[in-house]
Amino acid sequence: MQDFRMATFLNVCRTLSYTRSAAALNITQPAVSQHIAFLEKSYGTKLFAYRGKKLSLTTAGELLREAAATMAHDEDTLRESIAAMTGLRRSLRIGMTLTAGEYVLAPLLPAYLAVHEDVQARIFSGDTGFLLEQLRAGEIDCALVEGVFDRSAYDWRVFGTERMVAVCAAGHPLAQGKKPLRFDDLLEQHVLVREQGSGTRAVLVNALAERNLSVDSFARVTEVESINIIKVLVEGGYGISFLYEAAVRRELVSGQLARIPLAGRAIEHELTFLSLKGSVFAGELARLFDDLASAAKQAE
User: Fold this and answer.
1) What fold does the segment set 1-66 form as a domain?
2) Per-block mean pLDDT, blocks of 10 residues, the chain (300 long)
3) SS3 track for 70-128
4) 161-269 maps to which CATH number?
5) What does the alpha-carbon distance between residue 185 and residue 133 come to, in Å, rounded to a whole number?
6) pTM score over 0.85
7) What's the Cα-to-Cα distance from 197 to each of 11, 130, 203, 207, 233, rounded to whole Å?
8) How many contiguous H segments (helices) and E segments (strands) does the chain have?
9) Residue ranges per domain, the chain?
């Protein structure tokens, strides 16, 4: 069973504030300090340190957080698994980035959940950074992400590869040509991009960097947090965009949007399924991955 002081430690890891953790846990700030001091004495090292006025984890604190988060997650899952033996539903908390979730994973979930009637699913969405924080905090069990992460810190498997395509309105001059265009040929265009921190934005930035370009190389840039709003704006002739093919497949087929042919190697990026490293429930999460991956292949 997890020590109550470890729960305090994990909360301070999230807030990086003894005061905010005390309020969140409904205990006094001295009690928070005592819990952390107990753990530091037990492990024989400092877990937190102040840099100026900002509290931060030490290297030992980072190591303990990773282990404690896995243990806390496993304990929660164990409770739910035992509850499921008595006929109660167990929860499955899945995180997904917006593109990966809405256009890749979400269409596969109905069939999976219909078969696994004992599962009470909870779906979380956000950018890759947010989901990694949720995972480390034990708030979710697994995540499907499109962004970059430290692969040494998690158990992970590649779920699939998505291609990024350039799109414009069906009546746009760029839709009329058949000759593949270089990125340099598009720099006079108004481009619609996702916000900083999104996986789609990161893939585009990396593709541009390979060509010694950046988002600011375009004549005009508009940042939009919603993929659906980007598609509406592009369809209305308000600029071009670079989006995953899965996100615009329906609009391309219907003729609402048109693909801008790009020269050179296709822009592709992996979607990755990840969970906490060393979890005793790794086998169960691996089966979830296999079931969803199998459903994805059948849907192709």
Assistant:
1) Arc Repressor Mutant, subunit A (1.10.10)
2) 78 90 88 91 91 89 86 73 57 86 87 82 87 85 86 89 94 86 95 89 92 96 94 96 93 95 90 85 84 78
3) HHHHHHHHHHHHHHHHCCCCEEEEEEECHHHHHHHHHHHHHHHHHHCCCEEEEEEECCH
4) 3.40.190.10
5) 39
6) no
7) 24, 9, 11, 16, 21
8) 11, 11
9) 1-66, 161-269
